[in-house]
Design goal:
Chain lengths: 220, 477, 262
């Protein structure tokens, strides 16, 4: 234990007029008193969660498409790349769910362990948050984090059933999952952007210039 | 960073007459203020959200020892290292040591205001490392060798033309490349150059927008994605965060991010909001091998008791400066240290010293617009007034002001003398100015009349006129 | 001494006229008194009033600010309502006296008590008096300046606009950035004159952009600052306190900074 640690914690306690750290029970009681049990203030919407999610993606300059099954995501990927003249090579995350994708024959599909060589990449999200149109990605061998940041084109596959209304719902779900938290839990809301030059919005600052979401209605 | 806050007045004057700066500053109000307002109006109960943010931060600060210990234990569980820095020198030494042990040559940096506060770049330079800022705004001012002028838009004082010139000077020397003109070209050129730095960096340094005690995680909020490339690609990730950045749970982090994104850039969510917990896991194929978090005190514990604890709620969104008319007139550099605007005018005197920052608490009209937008309801005008009181108590207020106040108060407390004397004075001034109705110049009022006429008083004082009015009325009755 | 001998006793309000009105523009005090009388009140002007103490308070001179606050509290102790033709001075009493005197429990209580009884003029007329004032004619295009203290410490925004809406012939045109400070800020304007000048220049630009021939506000500090800048730039916009417009006295009174024969 470093001296700095002792001194900093000591000064905090002195300021609070106590000599020891409060107990978890005391802290919980104080928290309940301070914050109550009501739901936090958050956005509300009238449309379905999925519709809200898609609208927020639009607002964040992302694009999306819905496909009935994971197999059909392959055509969706090919269409997206063709539309943007983004070549025919795609680096896919090793996520086993992507094994169900029927990749069109003209696409060169490579399994990627990171994003260093990828111009276009496909990853899987664990969830979408309707509140903001954010994709939630879990880093790990299935979905390397850099795959979401180094490519110019990032395509994310998400099951429509995995769209949750608010962040609190997502946390409740994630707390149940083994291995949570991962090293990097990424919320992605539209492509990379900057407004550092004269407050002018420019997409594609350091991360992907374009973000495309493929919503799968029947995700395995 | 060394403070130049004692030069506030000349710096402000220079800023007011700098056409490039003035041109750049018009964009602050136009951009941030309008976007924030739109989203706040759209949110069902933003005032309630602010209340919750305030209550959550107050609760955390009141139990900060508990949450710091919980956070530390969770970081250890995730395989990360926790360092405690009491002073700027501690923080510099800790970061330099980590870099040395990693045998680092190049360091990439995400934007960190705590890092600016303790002068991390200077320490890394001294250790012989190449340090590259990766936030585009920070990169621009690193090229210009300037400090940030805004806590979330560090290069907001620069015009596009100035940035074109900078890039030409630093990127095109010895090449036949033409000077760039357009924003997309500037962004693209910086992207290409910085991509090479990201891929070759040994250590990545970031700040943190909040630390979560529940999981030992830190949140990092960016739009460019530079923060994620900074912490994901090098072998070692170091984050620097003030101890006040703690929040208890992930749900609390969500509350904070709802407030932060709307208050800062006027977004519902930035493009990238990332929760980082420890280093790369056993079977991960990317991510750093080491994760270090430096918990910075640097004077924060001195604010824990007493009224300035309220300032520790600050989530560094910049809304106060975006809404400050003084900031909008002079920009951030005139404030002379890391933090400008209203929050800086409170923090800088505390961190740097009241005697070296005499102007900061006073260069404010106390109009309260900052407080009305602060996501965690920090009473900034009250805190500035408290600093003025501290200045007064420590005899740092100019003698003329003290003397003037004492004389004025002597009269104000003696209504008879005050009324008699003011009637005389006003009668005289009124006769002098009645014809024209105003003065272009007036003895002892040079500061006022430099830019404004001074209205002449009407016939006599109200008190005198009212007594006359009453006696006339009584005669009539 | 001002007890009217009318059959039904009229409730009495105390007028805290403020030092700026007392010294520089008594017509605002008379307009205020007239409005209060028209609203059915009898008006008292305690002679022991001087200033609310804001200059000392905002300069960090707590000791003097406290002394003056106590004097104000004592002066107005007996009145059910204290009306102030200024958001800034009313704000000092309601939003700051209790805090200023927090270390002296008896005084703090008395300060809270006074705060509950103290009203800015337009708010008093709309929320307490709640009577229809006599109709006034004034053909003008006017823009309204919100003083920061009134707006943010007292929530005054709709009240003056509602009252001005009843003036025949008065057309209200809102300026841009109505919630931004004019740069007065009490002693700020003389401590940092060049920054203050920039702020008031912005304000004056926004006023001129509306095309209004008149700017009206509820605070004399802002009005002196704005009128002073308007005159310096020779802009043909006249400045009045809202009480003068509502009482109908503005038509016969030179505007702020205008001479008797201008």
């Amino acid at each position: 234990m470093s001296d700095a640690r002792t001194r900093i914690l000591g000064k905090v306690r002195a300021a609070m007029g106590r000599e020891t750290t409060p107990t978890p029970a005391d802290v919980q009681a104080a928290r309940a008193g301070a914050l109550g049990k009501g739901t936090p203030q958050r956005p509300v919407w009238e449309e379905s969660d999925l519709a809200r999610f898609c609208r927020c993606i639009d607002d964040a300059a992302g694009t999306w498409v819905t496909v009935p099954t994971l197999a059909e995501a392959g055509t969706a990927v090919a269409d997206y790349l063709a539309e943007r003249e983004a070549g025919t090579t795609v680096h896919r995350a090793p996520d086993p769910r992507l094994d169900h994708v029927a990749w069109p024959g003209h696409l060169a599909v490579e399994r990627a362990t990171d994003g260093r060589k990828a111009l276009a990449a496909v990853s899987c999200a664990v969830a979408g948050v309707a509140e903001t149109g954010s994709l939630a990605l879990v880093s790990g061998p299935d979905n390397p984090a850099t795959l979401a940041f180094l490519p110019d084109y990032h395509i994310v596959v998400l099951g429509t059933a995995d769209v949750v209304p608010w962040f609190e719902d997502l946390w409740a779900r994630m707390r149940e999952q083994e291995g949570f938290p991962p090293r990097s839990f990424n919320f992605i809301t539209g492509p990379s952007r900057t407004a550092d030059v004269e407050q002018t919005l420019q997409l594609g600052a350091h991360g992907p210039r374009s973000l495309h979401v493929i919503l799968v209605e029947n995700m395995p | 960073m060394e403070s130049r806050a004692h030069l506030f007045k000349p710096a402000a004057r220079e800023a007011l007459h700098n056409p490039d700066l003035q041109q750049a500053l018009t964009r602050v109000q136009a951009g941030f203020v309008g976007k924030r307002r739109t989203l706040v109006n759209k949110f069902p109960d933003f005032e309630g959200l602010r209340d919750r943010g305030q209550a959550m931060k107050d609760h955390t600060l009141a139990h900060l020892d508990y949450y710091l210990e919980q956070f530390e234990a969770k970081v250890h569980e995730a395989g990360g290292h926790v360092h405690w820095a009491e002073t700027a020198e501690d923080a510099q030494r800790i970061v330099a040591d980590i870099c040395r042990q990693a045998d680092a040559r190049m360091v990439t940096k995400g934007k960190t205001m705590a890092g600016e506060e303790v002068g991390i770049n200077e320490a890394l330079d001294a250790a012989g490392l190449e340090t590259v800022e990766t936030d585009l705004g920070e990169y621009i001012i690193q090229l210009a060798k300037e400090p940030p002028s805004h806590i979330i838009a560090p290069a907001i004082h620069k015009t596009r033309q100035q940035i074109c010139d900078l890039f030409d000077e630093h990127h095109h020397q010895g090449t036949f490349k033409e000077k760039l003109r357009e924003v997309p070209d500037l962004v693209n050129e910086a992207r290409g150059i910085l991509r090479g730095k990201f891929l070759n960096a040994d250590v990545g340094i970031t700040g943190a927008n909040c630390l979560v005690a529940e999981t030992g995680s830190m949140f990092l909020v960016t739009n460019e994605g530079n923060g994620d490339l900074t912490h994901s690609l090098p072998r070692v990730h170091v984050a620097i965060a003030g101890i006040e950045k703690l929040v208890p749970t992930l749900d609390d982090a969500s509350t904070l991010i709802r407030l932060l994104a709307r208050s800062a850039t006027g977004q519902e969510m930035t493009a990238y909001t990332t929760m980082v917990t420890g280093p790369r896991r056993g079977d991960d194929t990317d991510g750093p091998e080491e994760f270090h978090i430096v918990l910075l005190d640097h004077g924060r514990t001195n604010m824990m008791s007493g009224r300035f604890r309220e300032m520790l709620r600050c989530i560094r969104c910049g809304a106060c400066m975006n809404h400050c008319p003084v900031y909008a007139s002079i920009g951030g550099h005139a404030y002379g240290w890391v933090y400008p605007g209203p929050m800086g005018s409170v923090l800088t005197p505390i961190f740097v010293g009241l005697d070296k920052t005499k102007d900061l608490p006073n260069a404010c009209t106390l109009n309260g617009r900052c407080q009305s937008v602060c996501p965690v309801r920090i009473p900034l005008p009250d805190l500035l007034r408290d600093l003025r009181e501290a200045q007064f108590d420590q005899h740092l207020t100019p003698g003329t002001t003290r003397h003037g106040l004492a004389v004025w108060a002597w009269f104000a407390r003696r209504p008879r003398v005050y009324n008699a004397l003011s009637r005389l004075g006003i009668g005289l001034l009124g006769r002098l100015g009645r014809r024209r109705g105003r003065f272009r110049r007036l003895p002892l009022a040079g500061a006022w009349t430099a830019g404004r006429d001074f209205p002449a008083p009407q016939r006599t004082t109200f008190q005198a006129a009212w007594r006359q009015h009453l006696s006339r009325r009584q005669t009539h009755e | 001494m001002s007890q009217a001998s009318s059959p039904a006793p009229r409730p009495t309000v105390a007028l805290f006229v403020t030092c700026l009105v007392d010294l520089f523009r008594p017509s605002v005090g008379f307009a205020t008194a007239q409005l209060l009388e028209q609203a059915g009140y009898s008006v008292d002007v305690p002679e022991a009033q001087t200033c609310c103490g804001q200059p000392a308070y905002n300069s960090g001179d707590r000791a003097h600010a406290k002394q003056i606050a106590k004097q104000v509290i004592a002066t107005f102790r007996e009145y059910a309502h204290v009306v102030v033709p200024s958001g800034s001075c009313a704000g000092t009493i309601t939003a700051h006296y209790p805090d200023l005197l927090r270390d002296e429990p008896d005084w703090a209580q008395a300060a809270r008590d006074l705060a509950d009884r103290t009203w800015e003029l337009t708010r008093f007329l709309v929320e307490v008096a709640q009577v229809d004032l006599p109709t006034v004619d004034h053909k003008t295009t006017t823009t309204y300046h919100d003083s920061c203290s009134g707006l943010r410490e007292l929530g005054i925004r709709s009240q003056p606009r509602q009252l001005l809406g009843r003036v025949n012939g008065l057309q209200l045109r809102e300026m841009a950035d109505t919630d931004v400070c004019c740069g007065f800020g009490g002693t700020f304007c003389v401590k940092y004159p060049d920054i203050s000048e920039r702020l008031v220049s912005n304000k004056v630009d926004n006023i001129a952009a509306t095309g209004a021939d008149m700017v009206v506000a509820g605070d004399l500090g802002c009005l002196f600052n704005i009128a002073g800048r308007l005159h310096r730039l020779e802009k043909p916009v006249r400045a009045y306190h809202v009480a003068e417009i509502l009482a109908g006295t503005a038509r016969s009174e030179p505007a702020i900074g205008e001479g008797d024969r201008s």
